Inverse folding.
């Protein structure tokens, strides 16, 4: 059994603490929310751990993560290890690792997949960093990952940055998968021949080529709301899809599906599209085609 | 100077009659609208023309055109020539041609481009049919097409059907061109660095690689409404884009730009997207991500 | 236990016969291949079955299926039932059903998913037709579908045609899913930070959002050939993806992901792209940009 | 008449010097190539100009431009003006402007469009910077831009960076336009009904909705090589398309057409696609579908 400091006890971190404790590990958690935190500050968290320490950071990517890492660079000691398990951009990892290395502190970046289901199912993990640091954290990884062969729910993707890179690509793929199911769903809904769309989708769960965990989630959603009309077709994106596309651009990799999925989300959030106003205006200009005036 | 029967005096046909008459040709027009028609019926129109007759049909594609052709197959005589100048699907042409051929009547299919500007600028023409029939109608084509070298505003694309095929592809390209400008317009609008979007677009009219007639029309539109916010971003499609994509499928030709332009129009007309509801539902299922409830 | 005539004993039909017999059903198979057939002709097959008969047709879609259905319309008797389990276009089903109905023979269309794995795993089934005909064939469906709750591997999608429609959309989704994984794979391969691509993908099998049966198949493929470089990136398409896109067009449903996946297959089979030659030519014309001459 | 230092006498800069001199301006050019340069060094170029100087930099974007600007920041004097007319990324402009401002030197960024045709036709110009600096350079702009109203070939797009931003979007649009024509061309070639593709395209030059300068260039190319089969369908990209897509991502602007055009170029340069290998492998895994082995 190992000891772990865990910073960030939101939807993900909270559940991870539960899963780790259920596996018999000692977790000292910190969160700004006094209702869930175990300690009053990062200093207290560090004091509560025996050296060499392992600290897992699970806070929003970007500035929040960078700031926590900077604080820890002043609190941790030679031989300690910090793991960024958030959805940081892989380009942040080298910076974080170098900052911590200057204090003799190790660094791992770990992509964590599985959402709210991870507490019970386990989390898929992709890690970046040195073999030695990976080995130190392996008891933690083994507790967080799903049961079954380790290599089916955990990978050591490469050096620092590779874990977040793999998670970024994972999420880009996820965008594409979701959009593929979504287009199929819309077409089934639009058709007047398929009488019972939710039953068709439910029936895809076993034996078919398209069976997947996302499909099961779609079945759950349709069980609750068979036409999904309690929902707006308004979809956020949280960064990894954009980064995946930027990396595709940087590497000259065609990514028509991932980009289409991302753009569909962008479009879903627009009340008005300037682009489509321009197309409407052009049609009107050359053909005298009717247009919809605003407010009609 | 030649004599022409012209059926269909809407936006296109009406202007074509003007242009043909201005060129000195005799045009006998027929339209259901008594305010614009020259004759009371197709029978009267046929009677008013000297054999061998040339009749130009300029009515909506599909059923209306097929019906007019069927009526003319009973009214025209051996040696006469019927021209379908509407936006018919090329697959209709062979059927029309065979029906008329059984009565000894010739057939040409002609794609006509240029919209409401054609009256003054002339119309771009793409014709399908036999050399002999093309030759009979050439004075008409020469009057309708823009000034300048014939081959820059008129083509004999091939046998019956080729004219509408060429026009179909023309319109598919047109969809792509419009969407390309539209995306650029939206990005300029979204940027906070370009201070004056209409001026930038106006300044592209001379010397640049993107200069075109469509660009000039966009400049006109922006002159009238600099942010295009009098318009809804709601865009119809009239068939040729769909047919182009279907032909791309039939010929295994990748058409990512033309399809993207068509789908953007489809999406522009949706108040709610079932697909994006499905994506929102999936995100909610796996991540507990917030969703917008309908009506929020 | 029921009795079934099964026509077409190729990769799919052969395995289905095995699975049905293993479940205790009596199967009389027919195939042109004398090594696998149980009977010498369709007539013999019909004679070998007790009325009311059930015949399952599992031959290539299009002309072959239409022809077999036409032959059976002369061989089967009132009260018999024919099931088309091939990948027919849904528009064929109404024609088949009406032809057979004129002889008092029932008709079901059934989409069958699962490929070569179906023999052991069971096949996902989507059926179209009347409740009464579905009920007659249910013992067959129960033997073919995977174990577990019936509704997770079988659906009655709607009236005649709905089964093949659902299968068509299933395959359209499948195209999108495969392309999403494929783009992610290519990006991981292109990156110089991810050291071990097959391990990353293997590690996605448990706990992650992207886990699926297709992902497991990708793992199998990478186990055999870690960089997939024994293969050409040349991908056929077998019709359903095209039909899905055509239905999307007919229903004005945006399908950017499914179309992108289809076009990627088209492009994969081109040695030379006329389109990209045109782009190269245009760049050369305006910019004097270097081009590759053919054969360089 | 004004005096201008011009650095970079490649395809673009060489022609611009010609055009400026033809308009009566004094141009002192510098290039590393001794055959075209007027001076031996940047120092000599600066010495040859009377203060306040105007220097136009026309070298490859990125490091080469940044380096020249850095050198000029040590050579120019308060009141001088430097213009970057290359295809720099707009994000470089603020950095350049601040460096020069620290020495009292003004800065303009100017997007220049028109390619090798600009010498005779004039160049389309998009400028970013202060009104005062724009006014100083206006005689240069007036000489470089096409004849006709200034606002149709020149725009002051906004503050520093806006010129290159507008040019970037211009090029993104250009990618989309080219791909639209290219897809249409390929479909016409693939069709067996259109007998003469080059004639059809030639006939689109007058009167049609798709007429444009790019279309005229396509006609030139087809005049030289009617099936474009002297060329490989291999297309480079030079940065602006990528940047446009990245800006679309940053601004959550859907850009399906521009991205499709960019990805088509990426794909055109791949001998083998890892993505399509993965799709082929997946089809083989689930369906036993035939694959092409490498080298077949």
């Amino acid at each position: 059994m190992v000891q772990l400091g865990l910073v960030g006890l939101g939807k993900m971190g909270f559940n991870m603490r539960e899963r780790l404790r259920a596996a018999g590990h000692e977790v000292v958690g910190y969160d700004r929310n006094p209702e869930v935190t175990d300690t009053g500050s990062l200093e207290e968290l560090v004091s509560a751990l025996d050296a060499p320490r392992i600290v897992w950071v699970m806070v929003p990517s970007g500035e929040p993560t960078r700031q926590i890492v900077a604080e820890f660079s002043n609190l941790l000691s030679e031989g300690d290890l910090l793991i960024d398990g958030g959805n940081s951009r892989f380009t942040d990892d080298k910076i974080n690792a170098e900052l911590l290395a200057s204090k003799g502190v190790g660094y791992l970046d770990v992509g964590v997949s599985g959402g709210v289901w991870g507490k019970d199912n386990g989390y898929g993990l992709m890690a970046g960093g040195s073999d030695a640091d990976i080995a130190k954290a392996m008891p933690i990884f083994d507790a967080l990952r799903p049961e079954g062969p380790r290599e089916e729910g955990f990978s050591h993707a490469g050096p620092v940055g590779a874990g977040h890179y793999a998670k970024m690509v994972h999420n880009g793929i996820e965008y594409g998968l979701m959009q593929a199911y979504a287009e199929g769903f819309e077409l089934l809904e639009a058709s007047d021949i398929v009488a019972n769309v939710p039953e068709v989708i439910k029936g895809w769960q076993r034996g078919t080529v398209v069976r997947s965990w996302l499909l099961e989630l779609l079945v759950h959603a349709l069980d609750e709301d068979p036409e999904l009309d309690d929902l707006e077709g308004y979809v956020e994106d949280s960064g990894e899809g954009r980064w995946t596309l930027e990396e595709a651009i940087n590497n000259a990799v065609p990514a028509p599906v991932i980009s289409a999925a991302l753009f569909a989300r962008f479009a879903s959030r627009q009340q008005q599209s300037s682009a489509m106003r321009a197309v409407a205006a052009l049609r009107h200009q050359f053909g005298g085609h009717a247009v919809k005036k605003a407010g009609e």
Remarks:
- Residues 162-190 of chain A form the longest helix (29 residues).
